[in-house]
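@channel sequence for tomorrow's demo:
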Amino acid sequence: MNLTHSRLSCLQACPKRYFFQYVKGVRKRRDFDEPISIGRIFHELLETGSVVKPPNPGYTDEEKQMFDLIWAKAICMYEGYINYWKDDNITITKREIEFQIPILNPRTGRKARKAMLAGKIDAIGTWCSRTIIMETKTTGESLAPDGDYWKRLRMDQQITIYMLGYPEAETIIYDVIKRPTIRPREKVYHCPGCAQERAAGLKECGCGNTDKERDVAPETVTEYHERLRVDIAERPEFYYCRQEIPRLDADLEQFRKELWYKQRVLAERVKHGYWDRDTSACQRPWRCEYLDYCQGGFDDDVLPNGFYRAFGNEELRDAK
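structure tokens (generated this afternoon):
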């Protein structure tokens, strides 16, 4: 069994949620979950450098519109990110590095028999002649340098896991990109002559049309993309922040002890089939996707609409 940050976080949040997701392999479809989709697209853009929108066969008109808006946000975030950090002194040497290392008993050095620590690192690079892990995240939270987001990262489990998984790295540089909160406008005035967007108070535009009448329609994806691009260009510090998040040897040693204990507890849960519920996680930090089925469970043969079955860690190659 590969224990990743996602699996450990799920287990800590609610053992019953872990049971549904990783033991039964029941997953919620998130094709149009905006935060998750933006993060996925952004990382794909970083990895490939391609800005060609993929086809979306089978989408309804409503789903296609949702995807187009998500894509527009992700593209604006990516283009602004590349431009904002184009003159930095970080050189990326590798991307998407998977690792798998044994979990060791902190007293005896004995390896766990049925569990390994695993993960996928966004990138490895060099900075000021130092080997670094480069982690990139998208978030809806404030990026104020002294805010809670960065305070939480000082204790973040995932960073510690990455330092254990790639011991050649001397530190971690954390890049965070804030997801735009600007939404498409419901009413946009357009010139009846050339169809260009026209401010509500203007009577004419560049085409020379002086007709006082204006067509009113929702903002197009192209118009929304341009407005968002301008906003990011005008205040990039609102959208992008980068900090070094170091780990001390004492931090790594403490996590090794915690990890050994966690995998032992998980092994006991698997052995005895004991998966208690933590009801404080039903609504926080979001509504649990299994809430409607937690009491009765899932039918092994027929899953509810919107769910599918997949085993393993979807972020790694062992997903099935």
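heads up for whoever presents: The chain has a mean pLDDT of 88.
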